[in-house]
């Protein structure tokens, strides 16, 4: 196979990757291949690479025909040749090299993501007798991992604002506390936007009922957290953090994302199997 035919093969392989259009977005570069004295130009303008006859290259790849043959035949991964062995030399930014390398990487990931309230995975942020497990809610977390989901642990708003053992509980009044919780929620919004921009599926946001912060359908003790009431009865309303997160989702056109709550397990309680089945219903494809 000629060098030209091998370059065409690399071009076709890049354009057959369904994620190439996303990875080329806003890149807009001229890429030059130099292979044993022969030169080939690609443009990354648009949603795929296109061969071009002229232009000033902003990123240059240099390798031998032997190296190119090994890459085309899959004997050597392109990414390894570029970053590991040095068989491909490049001129240009490291960021551009990384972007191009990603296009040729195989991907077994399902690219499905779930965001979860912090203490499902790290129960140490809960109060001592509110922890029915040693470190994490193992059955629930195992269910998520077995489903193939990527699990993103949201920051704990109570830790960020009230401290690890919540000594400021009830000391921060309504609007300042909400504002601080909103700042934490902004972090989650940014992550959601980043994943969506690169084609990931956001399965949903898993809250914890009846947390005064992360409860989705039920909350308990919002008034005590705000220092406005001593009523600790459960109410059919979201927690403060979920209130702010829902507002931000709507403001950013993301209110189509599913938010669901599963009830936490307290020491001595039964029903973890029911909670796991409820979760499976939420995350099933």
What is the percent of helical residues? 40-55%
Radius of gyration: 25 Å
- Class from secondary-structure proportions: alpha/beta
Uncertain runs: none
The residue-averaged pLDDT reads 92
Assess the beta-strand content as a share of residues. 15-25%
Strand line-up across the major sheet: 3-2-1-4-5
Number of domains: 2
Distance linking N and C termini: 44 Å
How many β-strands, per DSSP?
A: 11
The total of helices stands at 12
Shape: elongated
Task: Report on the biggest sheet.
Answer: 5 strands, mixed
H and E string: HHEEEEHHEHEHHEHHEEHEHEH
Report on the architecture of this protein.
- This protein has 285 residues and is of the alpha/beta class.
- The protein folds into 2 domains: 3-103, Nonspecific Lipid-transfer Protein, Chain A (2-Layer Sandwich), CATH 3.30.1050; 112-283, no CATH class.
- The chain is 41% helix and 18% strand.
- The protein is built from 12 helices and 11 strands.
- A 5-stranded mixed beta sheet has the order 3-2-1-4-5. Strands 7-6-8-11 form a 4-stranded parallel beta sheet, sandwiched between helices.
- β2 (38-43) and β3 (50-52) form a beta hairpin.
- The longest helix has 24 residues, at 174-197.
- It is elongated, with a radius of gyration of 25 Å.
- It starts with a helix and ends with a helix.
- 25% of the residues are buried.
- The mean pLDDT is 92.
């Amino acid at each position: 196979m000629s060098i030209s035919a091998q370059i065409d093969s690399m071009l076709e392989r890049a354009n057959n990757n369904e994620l190439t259009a996303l990875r080329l977005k806003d890149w807009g570069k001229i890429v030059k291949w130099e292979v044993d004295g022969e030169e080939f130009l690609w443009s990354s303008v648009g949603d795929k690479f296109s061969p071009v006859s002229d232009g000033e290259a902003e990123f240059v790849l240099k390798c031998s025909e032997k190296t190119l043959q090994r890459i085309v035949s899959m004997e050597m991964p392109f990414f390894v040749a570029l970053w590991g062995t040095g068989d491909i030399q490049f001129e240009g930014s490291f960021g551009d090299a990384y972007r191009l390398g990603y296009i040729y990487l195989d991907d077994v990931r399902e690219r499905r993501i779930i965001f979860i309230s912090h203490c499902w995975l790290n129960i140490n942020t809960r109060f001592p007798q509110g922890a029915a497990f040693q470190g994490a809610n193992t059955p629930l977390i195992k269910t998520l991992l077995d489903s193939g989901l990527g699990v993103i642990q949201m920051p704990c708003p109570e830790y960020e604002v009230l401290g690890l053992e919540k000594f400021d509980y009830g000391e921060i009044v309504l609007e300042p506390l909400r504002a601080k919780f909103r700042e934490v929620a902004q972090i989650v919004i940014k992550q959601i936007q980043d994943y969506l921009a690169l084609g990931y599926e956001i399965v949903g946001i898993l809250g914890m009922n009846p947390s005064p912060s992360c409860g989705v359908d039920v909350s308990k003790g919002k008034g005590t957290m705000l220092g406005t009431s001593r009523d600790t009865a459960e109410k059919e309303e979201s927690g403060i953090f979920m209130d702010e997160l829902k507002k931000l989702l709507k403001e950013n056109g993301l209110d189509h994302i599913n938010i669901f709550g599963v009830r936490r397990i307290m020491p001595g309680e039964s029903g973890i199997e029911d909670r796991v089945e409820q979760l499976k219903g939420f995350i099933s494809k």
